[in-house]
């Protein structure tokens, strides 16, 4: 049983976390490059937010939503 857990440890520490170790070492040389992945996630999230707001405006401009107070069961 101990070998199983040591195998799982080896998988995560030696293989799956290797890219994170690389980023940790890279931070000492370049903070911007080490955080590039975070910046990419922020940009993708911001683009998705802008797309979502554009779609909400489109539906709002077309009056496709029933705005009657009794239109949704959870409102009353």
Task: Describe the overall structure.
- Keywords: Glycosyltransferase, Membrane, Transferase, Transmembrane, Transmembrane helix.
- This is Uracil phosphoribosyltransferase.
- Pfam families: DUF6341.
- It comes from Autumnicola musiva.
- The chain is an all-alpha fold and about 80 residues long.
- The protein contains four helices and no strands.
- It is elongated, with a radius of gyration of 24 Å.
Distance between the termini: 57 Å
Number of DSSP strands? 0
Mean pLDDT: 89
Number of helices: 4
> Structural class of the helices, strands and pairings?
mainly alpha
How are helices and strands ordered from N to C?
A: HHHH
User: What is the assembly state of the chains in this entry?
Assistant: single chain
Q: What is the approximate shape?
A: elongated
Main beta-sheet strand count, sense and barrel state? none
**Residue share in helix:** over 70%
What's the structural domain tally?
Answer: 1
Q: How large is the radius of gyration? A: 24 Å
Determine the strand fraction and express it as a percent band: under 5%
Instruction: Note poorly predicted spans.
Output: none
Primary descriptors:
mainly alpha, 4 helices, 0% strand, membrane, transmembrane, transmembrane helix
Q: How would you concisely characterize the structure shown here?
A:
The chain has 76 residues and is mainly α. It is 71% helix and 0% strand.
